[in-house]
## 1
Amino acid sequence: MIPLSREDDIGRVVEVLARSHSLLFITGAGISADSGLPTYRGIGGLYNAEHPDEGIPIEEILSGEMIRRRPELTWKYLGQIEQAARGAQFNRAHQVIAEMESRFERVWTLTQNIDGLHRQAGAKNVLEIHGNLHDLLCTGCEWQQTVADYGALSLPPRCPQCRAILRPRVVLFGEMLPRETVESLHDQLDAGFDVVFSIGTTSVFPYIAGPVEAARRRGWATVEINPTVTCVSRLVDIKLSMRAAGAMDAIWMRYQTQIK
């Protein structure tokens, strides 16, 4: 049972949604926790190793420079990341966001996660700011392919056309964010939103906290769903100290009941 104080906050979120037409969701590793994925630090929130076996900091192992110099080492840990996420299915939080796309005029999701679960749930307007672990690119030619998992790959995998090393379409340490994705985010922020949700992210990166800060300046409503205090908790209008799946399900059920 949800405590009365949280019920009141859920009611406030529903009131905001009832007068909204455009929504932005900013999501991090916490939204995938109910899918069984670890909320680790590191690339896309899926890795935590203070002392890797090789004695090299994980930030160096999972870097753009290392995959060029020693791809077998980077791929060893990329394989572990993929193994941790293999077989994971989207949860109710992902599903609700996807359903909202068909109920509101404009819904976008900015995610740090590289697990692909938003798209698996059916969401179409997704900005994967850190990329997607399942999209493989050749470092030597234009070959690319999307794979369900790494089970059939020999690590490090090679391109079937030119035999160069493959890499996932993810932002490794020391690399720039994807330009097209950043430009798309700016375009959507320029268009404006009625409400911005921050879900399951500590918001330590400026480009993740930035949209919440922009919403505060422009007078857009803001909601945070996170069981812990984060970098944007003091900025938001409504704070739900809950896990993502339970909160989003409760909000969506209440909204659909009241709108009928």
## 2
Amino acid sequence: MPKKKNIFKKLIQKYTLILLNEDSQEEQFSMRLNRINVLVIVALASFFIIATTVLVLLYTPIHDYVLPSQKQEEVQGKQEIVDLTNQVEMLEQKLSSNDVYIKNLQAILSGQVPIPKIDTSGGNFSSSVDLSKVDLNPTEDDLELRKNVEKEEMFNISSSDNQDSGTLLFTPLKGFVTSGYSTEENHLAIDIAAQQGEAIKSVAAGTVLFTDWTPDTGFVVIVQHQMGMISVYKHALTVYKKIGDVIKKGEVIAAVGNTGELTTGPHLHFELWIDGSPVDPQQYIVF
């Protein structure tokens, strides 16, 4: 009991808190306190600080930086859904474009597209290329190649009557054949390596049926000629023609490029189709 009484006496024992002016030593403030008063003041101050902090976190913008609200989580979730929806729409558009491209190409290569009648008697052809900026004069190699091809007379796309669409097939590109025609490897074309930007020319007179960009083969040009023949040019750097253009034999239609995923360098992927079936271009053209 004496110890408890001593503790109680200490708690109620009065103390005086005096503030003095350091220079004049005059009393500025004084307060009589005991230990119970000090404990009460400390408890009230702590409660006030805690309550103020809670209120600030709950009802001020600081809350958004410290504790994410349910609304923020909902907004983030909605934004993720919107992003995923946009990605799905983009994929659907790409898939739809690829489906249209495949259907059009199948129709062209199977001969379902009617062959347009081309009047070459007057020599008037429309062109979407500014010929003043394109050098169409044959080089010495082209002249020599023409002579060799004319001597061999490997293939003639004109009829035996009076069609004068231009005798032999024109070499689309002078270069090095890096990959030949092979049905076993499912490579129904030949690859011709050349410098990027070099002119690609049409093998014969005809009408442009397709010009577009595809993920695998880059820029593609498809030209339909007489006698059920179709020529296909892939991986171009740029295309100078549009669908429906009537072109002459040897006219520049594109430039050598390295576009598309299925390419390892600047080259021309050239296909030749007759009556809906692929043929080896090297059987009809000297490269």
## 3
Amino acid sequence: MRKNFVLDTNVLLHDPRAIFGFSDNDVVIPIYCIEEIDNFKRDLSELGRNARQVARYLDQFRAVGNLGEGVDIGGGSTLRVLFATRSIPGELSDAALMDNKIMAVALELREREKDRATVFVTKDANLRIRADALGLVAEDYDAERVGLDEVYSGKSIADVPGNVVDTFYATGEAVVPALDLDDRPRPPNEFLLLRDESNPAHTAVAKWSAEKRRAVPLIRLPKEGIWGIRPRNKEQAFALDLLLNDEVKLVTLVGKAGTGKTLLAIAAGLTKTMEEGVYHRLLVSRPVFPLGRDIGYLPGTVEEKLNPWMQPIFDNVEFLMNLSRADKKAGRGYHELLDLGILAIEPLTYIRGRSIPNQYIIVDEAQNLTPHEVKTIITRAGDGTKIILTGDPYQIDNPYVDSTNNGLIHVVNRFKMEKVAGHVTLTKGERSQLAELAANLL
């Protein structure tokens, strides 16, 4: 049975292509949404770009037919732009609220077209509650929603005969019967814990090779580690393997605060730029979202404005500098690396349209990015560039994304079967005992 899907403003601002996401059904946009979208059209942010795209779509359809009567938009769907022809219902007595006017359109449509179900689609949880109280079917919108418990972790446990673990230690690789006989495709860079069936304490960490269809060892680290950093748990070892593997061009690291995501990424980036010379420079950025109440505009140049936001990056670089005892690094601080052009700090705001070759790019706090923003960043990668996305989906400051539909989680699931991509979810905090307790208890 065909349905009427009435879209709220926030759905269109979140994803302009939501108009095309309801195949074989009718899409209805209340005229009041257009008025709200008009307020964002001059905005230079992602919201502004989405607002302008919605306006372009509607203008194209207007040229095809009358939007009030309905226009075919493909996929068996029609699009209508409607307004409330009756007075606002008593339950929505405050007609000054745009939310009430938008809901009034859905309520009127439900009464007028009883031969089909009417569904109100909004990303506003409070508005969904109000709609439900009025007897209106309300749903959230997200074409890419994935529950956190469903997110690919990048690792798995393989219970094997004891001789398989022994063979792996002796030869550096081993056939894993349970995986080798499994016909379903496995992620190319998935990490394994090989566990002896008869003795669970007898284990080995490995990586699944899709080409060889067997377990292979991780990249061997120098005795002193990289920039004084050595992995403290197997997940950090997995992360460093991806960060130091030049064949893996896209790495996603997900984990709670204190698991070492950013520190490991910066240490690997400095190793690949300063010591090995694989990349021309280390470029670091993070979305600009304040925690709590903002302090207002900051004076100075772009670099001076960015300093408060990028201070966590500088703290990590200074920490690595202090850990390193090599003469060539002794006494250096992040200011010297900036002056030498080895380290660059740039805002994501100006990345659109650029092509960035031969660089090691770290995007910290990527959970605050929308899927479209992440796409914009990754498509900037030029020849020889490696991109690292780090973040904690439980710490989101962007009001327009949540733990299940942010750009970081979107990339993890979309790229898990690609040979050039790898992912690890880190779970054990290593910052301090206090930080670990806070992350788990608060």
## 4
Amino acid sequence: MGDTTLGLTAATEAQCLTIETSQPLWALSADIIRGNVAALRGDGEIAQSLADRCERVLLSLGVHPMLAQVQQTRGVEALVGGRFEEAYDHLSRIYDPADIAHHPYTGFNLVEHLADSALRGGRDEQLAALTRQLGPIAERSGSPSLRAGLAYAEAVTAADDEAEGVFLAELEKRTAPWPFPRARLQLAYGAWLRRQRRAADSRPHLRAAISAFDALGVTPWAERARQELRASGETLRRPDDARHRLTPQEIQIAGMAAEGLSNREIAARLFLSPRTVGTHLYRIYPKVGVKTRAELARVLTAAAATS
């Protein structure tokens, strides 16, 4: 879904559980997810560091299927960093059966990243060849993510006289459980409309994309959508979401406190001591500019509403 705040919170919780249950391989999986989140957020140094460390461990253990997610982290990090050919090289390894990082099902979720890398890195022909191979697989498997990715690739590579029909047809299909892919499609459609000198038509799609990207915490995509909106003659400021100032564990504790749970109840759910929960709240309040649980609840509710 592209929700980096939820993903990072879940990965952090998972890592704690792996330590408590002595399952180090799953701790590594949590680190890979943290790397994916860092890449999506534009935290390149963290993403690269986690990818390198996880790859070393996976190779030493011979756990090769998980290498695909390492390549995912590297590919998205390079895409966000504007190194499009490098991004394509990283991501395309996942689709190559002869490559040690090959994993077909991981590839089902990455076609949109691959398409953006190919189009901006001059790999149009390679992308076309790969999507032709994936088309029959999408039909046989019925994979929603693969079919959505191929539809996105079709839309962004379509000729101008066909593009609008493809964009509109796919936007009709996208539903709420897929916010990130839908927002990417709205961004691509809005950018296409602007290039067609239809600035007024482009703005609603770009605004919707910005709102979704901000809510998901995928800052690089939000900034690109803002650039397109500015180019159309309109500016939209980034909202100040208090949740962005909190760590994953602080987000969990703040959310429970805002729901009315006591320190003891929060501690029982998170396997912490009530005193530790109190210490966290002591740090959370000044970060979001509040002094009480009631104020915290109002701030978090307002942040969720603007998302």
